[in-house]
Each structure stands twice: as structure tokens, then as C-alpha cells.
Design goal:
The protein is mostly helical. The protein is built from five helices and two strands; from the N terminus they run αββαααα. The longest helix is centred in the C-terminal third of the chain and has 25 residues.
């Protein structure tokens, strides 16, 4: 994805990359119009996928979609997520599917805000979505 962004991004825009069909769309992201700065840092963190966890996660996502019916978790409605995911019996698959659907929704909301010129509203969006997910997770653990 880094290579796609490096080749296809435009100044003043973020890049919406659809990994299903490879399509791209520029999304307005003009920080200078709002005052903040964006820092990009090289943490030198090693990212390896040789331990098989990527394949395990991908298998979990595909299994969740198979059990729920759509061809992709992208098609799972965010509004009815708890009810929908309750149909998955495996807790790990359920947690992984929740993560994917929540992230897809966060991207959709972020793109909508950016296209509407509401950059300052993007920051709290990430916090709000993550907070709701954590609260659901804690509530489920407490209940059993």
C-alpha cells in the first residue's frame, strides 16, 4: 500500500484505495487550510508476516463472511453489528470480524467528513469508534 500511495497520491489529498478492485480515489486532505501539521516518522519497527498470523487472520475474516452470508465483511451493516456478529460462535472470529467492520466504518465516515470539508471532525471520529468498540468488548467480558 505504501507503494500505491507514493505513486498515486496528489498534493492536498489522501488516497482511498479499494483493495477489492484496485480502484483509487483522491480525498481532500488539505491540512494547511486548517493549521495542523502532519508528521511522518520512521519507527524502524520490523514488520514480518512469516509467523502465519496474517494468513490466520485472513482465514478468520473469510470464515466470518462465509458464516454471515456476504462475500466480504465490507457488506456487513455497521448499524446491526452486535446482532449480526452474535451469529458467529467462535469468539476469535467474532472479535476479528468486529475489528474489520469497525475499521471499514471508520474509513467510510472519515472519507465522508473529508469530502464535506470537515477535517477537524475527523480526529474525534477515531477515538469515538474505538471507544465504542472497547466498551462493547468490556461489557461482553463482564457478562460472560
Amino acid at each position: 500500500m505504501d507503494q500505491a500511495a507514493a505513486l498515486r497520491c496528489r498534493v492536498g489529498h489522501a488516497l482511498l484505495l479499494d483493495c477489492r478492485d484496485g480502484s483509487i480515489a483522491p480525498v481532500p486532505f488539505d491540512l494547511s487550510a486548517h493549521g495542523p501539521s502532519l508528521l511522518i516518522m520512521d519507527t524502524r519497527a520490523e514488520h514480518t508476516l512469516v509467523d502465519g498470523q496474517y494468513a490466520q487472520r485472513r482465514d478468520s475474516y473469510e470464515e466470518a463472511a462465509r458464516q454471515l452470508g456476504p462475500s466480504s465483511l465490507r457488506e456487513v451493516a455497521f448499524d446491526d453489528l452486535d446482532k449480526t456478529l452474535d451469529r458467529l460462535s467462535d469468539i476469535t472470529i467474532r472479535a476479528r470480524a468486529r475489528h474489520v467492520v469497525t475499521e471499514i466504518e471508520r474509513v467510510r465516515q472519515t472519507v465522508a467528513l473529508l469530502r464535506a470539508g470537515r477535517l477537524p471532525a475527523v480526529g474525534p471520529l477515531g477515538t469515538d469508534v474505538l471507544s465504542r468498540a472497547r466498551i462493547r468488548c468490556l461489557r461482553r467480558r463482564a457478562v460472560g
